[in-house]
Specification:
This protein is of the alpha+beta class. The protein contains twelve helices and twelve strands.
Length: 327
């Protein structure tokens, strides 16, 4: 199983799908939407099970604002009408703080507001008037030391910290203003990353007050996403990947499997063919066509193609990033 980590994670997910296409036994819509968005991101969509989950998400009425936001993102990706759903969501926006509550009777919260901001961003809908205040609300929930809490007086939540860090990635270069003060998204991301690194015990490979495998796995993913703390990444990778169970999961609950999928997904590039372009002639320039296939589970844009002539490396290395290539 250690040689096929991702395959077994997918197997674990597939074995927990319900007959109607949903996943799990609680928070089914949210959980199913998260899995659908994840599989779409990694282009793992060619299966009857994926079709079944999409049908469930399209035909099931969202029960709260977070589910509305996730469904809107899905509809945008599917090229289906989404504006009515977003307008319903925006009608629930708190006009005082810019946030969104899970339900009408609740107060605004960072997770629901982050999902709403991502939905508006994905749809390119009311960015300045509605998305910006929502994003500012999220940023204001990040404490100066980078901690985040569900309620005042509680312990910092690793799930919340990593979920918000992931959600902020598309907005990394932005500065958000309410007309009086301006907040740098990058500064808030730096605060989150600082909290992560200062609340990690390198001797035990444990997070302070970590509660589940998902805490460590999602932390690993956050560090990967922002390409920082290489030593901590390696330690967390080594400490968590060995915990995969016989059923492919990482402890009880699908959120652990989702976090593991994000953390362990890797590209796998293979040269499938190499052929000359035109006729080859001695001591004359020659052109070649190379076909490269990514057989892994993650896209890659920072790879390099090295050329060797008679086993001697040449200087002209081709960088994927220099030609805008992503596989």
């Amino acid at each position: 199983i250690e040689k096929h980590t991702m395959d077994f994670i997918l197997y674990n997910l597939s074995q927990n799908q319900n007959a109607d296409g949903s996943f799990g036994s609680f928070n089914q819509y949210e959980l199913t939407a998260e899995i659908a968005l994840l599989l779409t991101q990694y282009n793992i969509t060619d299966s009857g099970q994926f079709t079944l989950m999409i049908n469930y998400l399209k035909t099931t009425e969202p029960a709260n604002n977070r589910e509305k936001a996730m469904k809107a993102r899905l509809l945008v990706g599917l090229g289906q009408p989404y504006q009515q759903l977003l307008d319903e969501l925006l009608a629930e926006q708190n006009q005082t703080n810019g946030g969104f509550a899970l339900l009408d009777s609740y107060g605004s919260d960072a997770l629901t507001t982050m999902d709403a901001a991502l939905a508006l961003w994905t749809a390119n809908y009311q960015i300045e008037t509605k998305m910006a205040p929502a994003l500012l609300y999220v940023l204001n929930q990040i404490q100066p030391d980078g901690s985040m809490y569900y309620t005042a007086g509680s312990k910092p939540s690793w799930y919340l910290i990593n979920k918000i860090a992931e959600g902020l990635k598309p907005f990394q270069s932005m500065n958000i203003s309410d007309g009086q003060t301006t907040v740098s998204v990058q500064d808030k991301i730096n605060a989150l990353l600082n909290f992560i690194q200062t609340n990690y015990n390198s001797e035990t490979n444990k997070l302070t007050n970590g509660r589940s495998p998902a805490d460590e796995l999602s932390t690993l993913r956050t560090l990967q996403l922002y390409n920082t703390a290489d030593a901590m990444q390696k330690a967390l990778w080594d400490a968590t990947i060995i915990n995969q169970q016989a059923d492919g999961g990482f402890g009880t609950g699908l959120y652990n499997s989702i976090a593991a999928f994000k953390a362990f997904a890797q590209p796998d590039l293979a040269v499938t063919s190499l052929s000359s372009v035109g006729q080859l002639q001695t001591k004359s320039p020659a052109g070649f066509k190379i076909h490269i296939k990514n057989t892994g589970y993650k896209t890659v844009s920072d790879a390099s193609i090295h050329q060797f002539i008679d086993s001697v490396a040449q200087d002209n290395v081709l960088q994927f990033s220099s030609i805008g290539l992503t596989l």
